[in-house]
Write a structure and sequence with these properties.
Rossmann fold; six-stranded parallel beta sheet; 8 helices
Amino acid sequence: MQNKEKIGILGGTFNPIHIAHLIMAEYALEELNLDRILFMPSGNPPHKDKNLIISNDDRKAMIELAINSSEKFIFSDIELNRSGKIYTVDTLRILKETNPDNEYYFIMGEDSLLYFDNWKEPENIVKLANIVVARRNSGSSSNYDKSYLNDMDKKLLEKKAFLEKEYNADIFFLTMPNIDISSTVIRDRIKSDKSINYLVPKEVLNYIKEKNLYK
């Protein structure tokens, strides 16, 4: 019989995976005392332009290279190999059916929480997993940023209270350092022949160069 585990789920297109993804996963692992984190790339996400996403094989290869040094970071192709539109609630049902004793923690960004009640079956998502929201740390921000972050904090707390009352959700806030890195920025820098050193793991950087990706 499998022991109950606390499993984090970090989804996304990972186009490409970068340092901020790994730092977010590490913080979640430590703060929530998780046993493992699944890195789960989407095959056909409903809100992304599939023409901007490179092949599944390339994204898989880069994720595996990026997480190879951590035994607690695991690649999952549960969404990568599914056809049609992919929704979080369907993925969570599959995970729960496969390992019903595990406790799942679905990691999302701040903006996702604000629109969470527009997702497919939010009332069932929160039954299948705890919600973890990665928040930016306002401690080292400029006054302008602090004003924005304070406003965001207010919105997040209001939404958290609403979802907990409406759906009996378990929502955790994960405070992150401010790391202004995105896959879009990385792709744009590559197209402009600018360096992406230190924005992605060295192994991923070498893979992108060898495959001539995002040109």
